[in-house]
Design brief:
By secondary structure, the chain is an alpha+beta fold. Helices cover about 40% and strands about 20% of the residues. The protein binds cytidine-5'-diphosphate and magnesium ion.
C-alpha cells in the first residue's frame, strides 16, 4: 500500500553537514519526496510537535535540542513508507541501531540521533499536517 510519512533531518545532522547524504539515501530507498523544507523550530513548536512525550524525562532536553538550529522536514511517499523509513533510520539509540541504518551512521546519542520518522498512520497524519498543512 502506498503511504506517506514525515521525516526530519534533525539539527545535529544539519550541523554535521550530512543533509545531502541522508537525502541521497532517501532517494536510493525508492521514496518520492513530495515536500521538503528547512525550518528552525521555536521551542514552543518543538514542544507541540513532541507533545505525546510531554511526561517523559527527556522532553525538556529533547525540545531544547530540536529548537537549537535548523532541521529539514520531508514529506515522503512509498510502498509501506512508515515502516520502511523506520527500518532505514534504525533504533532510537544509535548504539543499538544496526549497521547500515542512518542512526548508526550519523547519530551521536539517543537524543541526537540524526533523523525522525512517524511511527503510525495516525502520527503521520498529524505530523504531515503540522509541517505541510
Ligand atoms: O524517534 P523514535 O520514534 O525512535 O523515538 P521516541 O521514543 O518517539 O522518542 C522521540 C525522540 O526523543 C527520539 O528520537 C530521541 O531524539 C529522543 N529521546 C531521548 O532523548 N531519550 C530517550 N530515552 C528516548 C528518546
Ligand atoms: Mg517516535
Amino acid at each position: 500500500m502506498t503511504e506517506r510519512t514525515l521525516a526530519i533531518i534533525k539539527p545535529d545532522a544539519v550541523r554535521k553537514k550530512v543533509i545531502g547524504r541522508i537525502i541521497q539515501r532517501i532517494e536510493d530507498e525508492g521514496f518520492e519526496i513530495l515536500g521538503l523544507k528547512m525550518v528552525h523550530l521555536t521551542r514552543e513548536e518543538a514542544r507541540k510537535f513532541y507533545y505525546v512525550h510531554k511526561d517523559k524525562p527527556f522532553y525538556e532536553s529533547l525540545t531544547d535540542f530540536m529548537s537549537s538550529g535548523p532541521s529539514v522536514v520531508l514529506l515522503l511517499e512509498r510502498e509501506n513508507a512508515i515502516k520502511h523509513w523506520r527500518e532505514v533510520m534504525g533504533a532510537t539509540d544509535p548504539a543499538q541501531a544496526r549497521p547500515g541504518t542512518l542512526r548508526r551512521q550519523f547519530g551521536f546519542s539517543i537524543e541526537r540521533n540524526a533523523v525522525h520518522g512517524s511511527d503510525s498512520p495516525q502520527t503521520a497524519e498529524y505530523e504531515i499536517a503540522f509541517f505541510f498543512g
